[in-house]
Design brief:
87 residues; two-stranded antiparallel ribbon; mainly beta
Length: 87
């Protein structure tokens, strides 16, 4: 969220940005939403967050980001592929 784009060595880079990792419980009429902010969205942050919020046996649905690669070791894991225009 936020951020300013600037050029660094001919590449575009974002500064002053906050990453958000969140979960939505798909339970009709009573699902909960929870989110955290972090400096980096990576597996070191995402996996402990998922473990803290989701019970074993839960199906986790994510996008195709590599930060979720290890989720399948502990949960049923499905992902959508934004590059194939899945949403």
């Amino acid at each position: 969220m936020g951020g300013i784009r600037r050029k660094v060595h001919q590449k575009s880079q974002w500064d002053n940005i906050t990453a958000v990792i969140g979960m939505v419980e798909k339970k009709k009429g009573e699902g909960k939403i929870t989110a955290i902010t972090t400096k980096q969205a990576n597996a070191t942050v995402a996996l402990p967050f998922i473990r803290a919020m989701a019970r074993q046996g839960t199906e986790i649905q994510t996008d195709e980001s590599r930060i979720y690669h290890r989720v399948k070791r502990e949960y049923a894991h499905r992902f959508i592929n934004h590059s194939k225009e899945e949403y």
